[in-house]
Amino acid sequence: MVFSRECEYAFKGLATLATEAAARPVMVSQIAALERLPLSFLRKIFQKLLQHGLIQSHRGARRGYTLVRPAAQITLREILEAIQGPDLFDRCLFAHYRCAEQGACLVHLAWQDVQPQVQAAFERTTLQDLLNARAAAVSRPGRRSGGKRKRISDATAAPAPVSRVVGGGDPLAH
Q1: Which residues face 108 on adjacent strands?
Q2: Prediction pTM value
Q3: Given 86, 87, 96, 156, which is the most exposed site by the fewest CB atoms within 10 A?
Q4: 91 lies in a domain?
């Protein structure tokens, strides 16, 4: 089980929707600019999230995306499986394939022991939990990169150029 950059970008995109889309749908181009993500790659990721029923698309004057359910009802497991497939927890820790009992990797038995606990933790943890953890980290005194995250609603109607976007110090960034 290896998490891809695609998963990282999915978490960032969904986190932005959770914080921004309550007022109105958010366009992928706005999210890409805010989070400094490659637009074409983020569009492909959003197609997967749309196919798996985690987000919905809005057309017309108020076009963009919103979450289908509140962030407190979307689990990490749902997000990870939407991006990496339903067999995510059956894969080897070192590769993108399934470990077999015969010819298994060195940590196969150890992974078998903890895999159910990891899976359960990802089923319990929600997108809202991640947002709460990020908010708590930002509000801690002595935080190195501190500062408020720029919001889409703080920008003009058009997406801000990447050079003007403020990011940084985000636990979801790694």
Answers
A1: none
A2: 0.76
A3: 156
A4: yes
Q: Which helix (H) or strand (E) segment is 58 a member of? A: strand 55-58
- 56 within a domain of the structure (yes/no): yes
Burial of 116 from C-beta contacts in 10 A (0-12 / 13-18 / 19+): exposed
Task: List the CATH number of the domain containing 46.
Answer: 1.10.10.10
Structure confidence by residue, pLDDT tens digits, 74-118:
999 999 999 998 888 877 776 656 666 666 777 878 888 888 999
Residue 1 in tokens: 């089980």
Q: Which domain holds residue 32?
A: 5-141
Contacts of 128 by beta carbon, 8 Å cutoff, 6+ apart:
18, 70, 71, 72, 74
Packing angle between helix 39-51 and helix 28-35, nearest 10 degrees?
Answer: 120
**Domain tally, the chain:** 1
